[in-house]
């Protein structure tokens, strides 16, 4: 981010300058009307914002009188740091943390259908409990035991890539578990306080991190040109090293179809990655979610190395 001039505007104007920078960077144009519609400001204020932006970055845009808009210059250099994930979310969903209008994409896009969307009331009740450190009683329907009431101490939300869970201590089972938000029929405050063994710091699977070493799948029938996989996944010297929480490892490996077998035996074009250091999953509670993972083989491999 450019220093100096950017320190002078108010926080509200900085948000509008960020918006101008974003539109030029990702859409190639910006107008006074864009500011008026997005922030509900007067045209005079929008004009001042454009003037301020041009003062800060005089080489970023040129006014096209015929089109009545500012167009990006070849010499453009963003004055703010833009997150790729935030940018894609804004472009494809039109949603920001202060966005109150229609949730319309900024460009044409195709997004996957969402088959599991939790209720805002459920989410709000859980996030309040997490933030305030409270117990909640939930109505939960599991595939194994059916509908039951449970008292839990939630401490974090977990996204598996497809579904939202809440990480919590379950008083019925006496351990930390992940609960699917879409299987909750109700959430309400529970009496009592969270005990010391029920807080996030006592959740060993949450506190533990595992190092994953991902490589292109060794089997040619899965991957014919390993260099394409190395480029796609940003590998260095043929390896992508990632650190994840143990509580999240199984979800991550299943989402990306990472072959976690000791002998890279998973077959199919969907298995483009192999976990080279499969023994790192020893002791990870949800490792059984990882494709090809077999606990006994992993334990044996780890014993051979010790």
Automatic annotation (TrEMBL):
Q: What is this protein called?
A: Predicted DNA-binding transcriptional regulator YafY, contains an HTH and WYL domains
Which keywords accompany this UniProt record? DNA-binding
Domain of life from the UniProt record: Bacteria
What are this entry's molecular-function GO terms?
Answer: DNA binding
Q: Which PROSITE patterns match?
A: WYL
Q: Does the record's keyword annotation contain DNA-binding?
A: yes
Q: Which residues form the DNA-binding transcriptional repressor CapW winged helix-turn-helix domain?
A: 13-86
Instruction: Please report the stretch or stretches of sequence annotated as the DNA-binding transcriptional repressor CapW C-terminal dimerisation domain.
Output: 210-280
């Amino acid at each position: 981010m450019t220093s100096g001039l950017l320190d002078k505007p108010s926080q509200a104007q900085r948000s509008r300058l960020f918006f101008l920078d974003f539109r030029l960077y990702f859409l190639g144009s910006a107008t006074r009307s864009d500011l008026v519609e997005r922030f509900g400001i007067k045209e005079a204020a929008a004009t001042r914002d454009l003037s301020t932006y041009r003062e800060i970055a005089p080489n970023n845009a040129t006014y096209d009188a015929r089109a009545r808009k500012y167009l990006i210059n070849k010499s453009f250099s963003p004055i703010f740091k833009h997150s790729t994930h935030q940018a894609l979310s804004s472009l494809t969903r039109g949603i920001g943390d202060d966005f109150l209008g229609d949730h319309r994409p900024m460009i044409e896009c195709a997004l996957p259908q969402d088959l599991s969307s939790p209720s805002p009331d459920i989410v709000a009740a859980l996030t309040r409990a997490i933030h305030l450190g409270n117990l909640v009683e939930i109505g939960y329907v599991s595939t194994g035991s059916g509908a039951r009431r449970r008292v839990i101490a939630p401490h974090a939300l977990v996204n598996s890539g497809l579904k939202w869970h809440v990480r919590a201590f379950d008083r019925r089972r006496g351990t930390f578990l992940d609960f699917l938000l879409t299987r909750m029929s109700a959430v309400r405050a529970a009496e009592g306080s969270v005990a010391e063994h029920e807080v996030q710091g006592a959740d060993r699977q949450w506190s533990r991190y595992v190092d994953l070493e991902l490589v292109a799948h060794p089997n040619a029938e899965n991957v014919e040109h390993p260099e394409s996989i190395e480029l796609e996944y940003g590998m260095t010297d043929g390896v992508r090293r990632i650190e994840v929480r143990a509580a999240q490892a199984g979800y991550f490996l299943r989402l990306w179809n990472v072959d976690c077998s000791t002998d890279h035996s998973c077959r199919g074009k969907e298995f483009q990655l192999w976990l080279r250091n499969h023994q790192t999953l020893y002791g990870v509670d949800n490792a059984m979610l990882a494709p090809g993972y077999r606990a006994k083989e992993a334990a044996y491999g780890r014993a051979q190395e010790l």
